[in-house]
Amino acid sequence: MKLFEYQGKAVFQAAGIPVPESRLVPCTSASVAVIAGQVAEAVRELTAASSSDNKPAGGDTAIVVKAQLDMGGRGKAGLIHVARGPEAAAEAARTIMGKGYTIPALLVERAVSIDRELYLSISADATSANFVILASAEGGVDIEDLAKNRPEAIRRVVVDPFRGLQGYQSRGLAYDLGLSDNVAKQFAAMVEALYRVFRGKDAELAEINPVFITTSGELIAGDSKLIIDDNSLYRQREFQLAREQFDSDAAYEAAVEGIPYLQFDGDISLMCAGAGLATTVFDLVNYGGGAVANYLEFGGPNYQKAQRAMELCLKNQSSVILVVTFGTIARADVMAQGIVDAMKLLKPDRPIVTCIRGTNEEEAHETLRAAGLEPLLDTEVAVQRAIDLAAARKGREKKDGRA
Q: Does residue 242 lie in a domain region?
């Protein structure tokens, strides 16, 4: 579960990590004019509460208006604006809302006077079963390019989960970045606080990019990225799934249902059992010239959810549903019967291609044949069949459009 910036910053602040003073303006059920007015009012509140270090003589406090979206490069996309005064901030809000994105909220922050920017993150390294802290003296939106072109500029600290973060590690990281005196102490404290967030919130990733070093020598979290492990949400009850966190209704409904789901923009819906098999099928579709509309995990604990799985696939504007499974614990006969039952109930308006293998596959194939489906035995043949059906439908639609 990916938190929005304002949610992550609230968690950071509670853990003792400094964040800019801010106000949140919800956008889901208001007109642009109303939103702009609320942004102006938020600016007035921040201006009244702000200190004088960011307010020039005869001028207005600098304010940052930020769209709350789960995407990188918001600044480059025109979704972050710096403004001075309520009217300018309101105009910035109107500009952001006119970009064509579905924006759940705007974060209105008091800007800080920046001297330098750093990068800091904590994640898990599955191969070594350790946690990894990454930091750089060069933070900002182009950290990915930095990692690719100058990896030596990123410092790496490995943390044993059983021992936890040691004080010498956080202090050593601060000095490795060339920080000194009070700034180094603040950074070490920030690393330790972020580690507490990472462990305490069952996070997959906790990232601050950038970490601002202000002209007065303070460290402030300029942004937040916090991803909570979905498997821990039963104990992280403060975090609730919301539609605004997902790209589509299907993705949201799948998350609520506990079904792994990824949204794409092609025309072949995938129902696959097993991440490795799904990756292979995805590659085969692309190599064959097709395009995937969505990936849905139909195996594991979800192999008895055929009806719900098919409902989610039908929410896509796809041309065909491709079902490819190889199940041992996830029994083939149960999945086949579920697909047939789902077809009878939902009456899908597009063809379904099946390649269901595994435990009790003979019974599965009999069930599919009785329902008028051809049980294929070769994954590559099934993928090509789906690609051909999708291409044929696209050709018919193009012909009808010309007519």
A: no
Residue 34 confidence class, pLDDT cut points 50, 70, 90: very high
Find out whether the peptide bond into 351 is cis, omega within 30 degrees of 0: no
Q: Write down the pLDDT at residue 57.
A: 41
- Same domain for 30 and 155, yes or no, is no
Asked if 105 and 146 sit in the same domain, the reply is: no
Name 163's Cβ contacts closer than 8 Å, sequence gap at least 6: none
**Whole-angstrom distance, CA of residue 150 vs CA of residue 143:** 10
The Cα–Cα gap between 331 and 116 comes to 57
Give the chain's mean pLDDT: 91
Burial of 351 (0-12, 13-18, 19+ CB in 10 A): middle
Q: Classify burial at 332, counting beta carbons within 10 Å of its beta carbon; exposed 0-12, middle 13-18, buried 19 or more.
A: buried
Q: How far is CA 321 from CA 209, 267, 270, 307, 341, in A?
A: 40, 9, 6, 13, 15
**Stretch 20-28: mean pLDDT:** 94
What tens digit of pLDDT does each residue of 200-246 get? 999 999 999 999 999 999 999 999 999 999 888 889 888 887 777 77
Structure-block tokens of residue 256:
């609520």
pLDDT at 29 over 80: no
d(C-alpha 155, C-alpha 176), whole Å = 8
Exposure string over 69-87, b if 16+ CB within 10 A, otherwise e: bbeeebeeeebbbebbbbe
Distances (CA, A) of 16 to 119, 136, 191, 194, 212: 18, 21, 11, 9, 15
The CA-based dihedral angle spanning residues 244, 245, 250, 254, taken in that order and rounded to the nearest 10 degrees? -130
Judge if 279 and 398 occupy the same domain: yes
Please give the model's pTM, rounded to 2 decimal places.
0.77
Find the domain containing 99 and state its range.
21-111
Alpha helices in 15-85 (DSSP H): 32-49
Write out the DSSP string of 219-243: EEE---EEEE-GGGTTT-TT----G
Same domain membership, residue 272 and residue 397:
yes
